[in-house]
Design brief:
about 270 residues; alpha/beta; Alpha-Beta Plaits; Rossmann fold; 7-stranded mixed β-sheet; 9 helices; 11 strands
């Protein structure tokens, strides 16, 4: 199981959690914690093994007192229940292909609830994987209705996380707020440089020697959400903007499989 914790920074939190788990026959396999001194927030992620037969329900229900004592926002996640993920894509399918392949071979422990696109390009690919495909065109005139349909799909399937795998539409502030902490984007740039459209062209024009990709949480501030993971590739003056795009696609695929982070609401939360 995994426990995620967020609270005000204070003495005794780590000891209380470790003692609680030990008293219930649990062995901590991995633990990471972080104090954000700018906000006085504490974040912790603990993976543990139940070794004496205590049930998940007992672990969860018994933690209430400690959670209240330290004013925690916390959640438990069972290891045997994969996260429910919806993937959204437009017309660049390299990230989608990589995600589907790794899901199919069991390398990515998620349950794909739906693939949503504003085009029909990948309908056959998705259907051949026995997954639901939804084409929802988006225009300036129907954007509100289109996002309402997307939310219906997300809520009806109990989707926990939405991955924008090169989905080339800007989500409304309302949808970002409603899904706060539950949407991640694979952006084809090493943020915060070259936000928005055509980042590789921008990079080429600036003469940069490193390009990259960023996986980040989506907020109503375009391409400014908390960063989860980044990677880079070296380029030279001899390469064209088209070469940048080709190289960048390989980097973007790395960003598309940063794992299956649990939803959170802070850039400092361990995922």
């Amino acid at each position: 199981m995994t426990l995620l914790v967020k609270s005000q920074s204070q003495r005794g939190i780590v000891a209380a959690i470790a003692g609680y788990l030990a008293d219930r026959g649990c062995n901590i396999a991995e633990s990471a914690q972080f104090n954000d001194f700018d906000t006085n927030q504490f974040f912790m992620r603990v993976s543990f093994i139940r070794e004496t037969g205590v049930s998940e329900e007992e672990i969860v229900s018994g933690f209430v007192d400690i959670g209240s004592q330290f004013g925690m926002i916390y959640s438990f996640h069972g290891d045997l229940k994969p996260m429910k993920v919806a993937i959204m894509v437009s017309r660049f399918g390299h990230c989608l292909n990589d995600l589907l392949y790794r899901w199919r071979i069991g390398a990515l422990p998620i349950e794909i609830t739906a693939v949503i696109s504003n085009h029909f390009d990948y309908q056959k690919l998705v259907v051949n994987h026995d997954l639901p495909f939804h084409c929802i065109p988006v225009t300036a005139q129907n954007k509100r209705d289109a996002e309402a349909r997307i939310m219906q799909i997300v809520e009806a399937s109990d989707t926990e996380l939405v991955v924008l795998a090169r989905y080339m539409q800007i989500l409304s502030d309302e949808m970002c707020a409603r899904m706060s902490g539950r949407i991640i984007n694979i952006h084809h740039s090493f943020l915060p440089s070259f936000k928005g459209a055509n980042p590789y062209k921008q990079a080429y024009q600036r003469g940069v020697k490193l390009i990259g990709a960023t996986a980040h949480y989506v907020t109503d501030d375009l391409d400014e959400g908390p960063i989860i993971e980044q990677d880079t590739a070296r380029v030279t003056h001899a390469q064209s903007p088209e070469d940048y795009v080709s190289i960048g696609r390989d980097v973007e695929k790395q960003g598309s499989r940063v794992g299956s982070p649990r939803p959170c609401t802070s850039s400092s939360f361990y995922r």
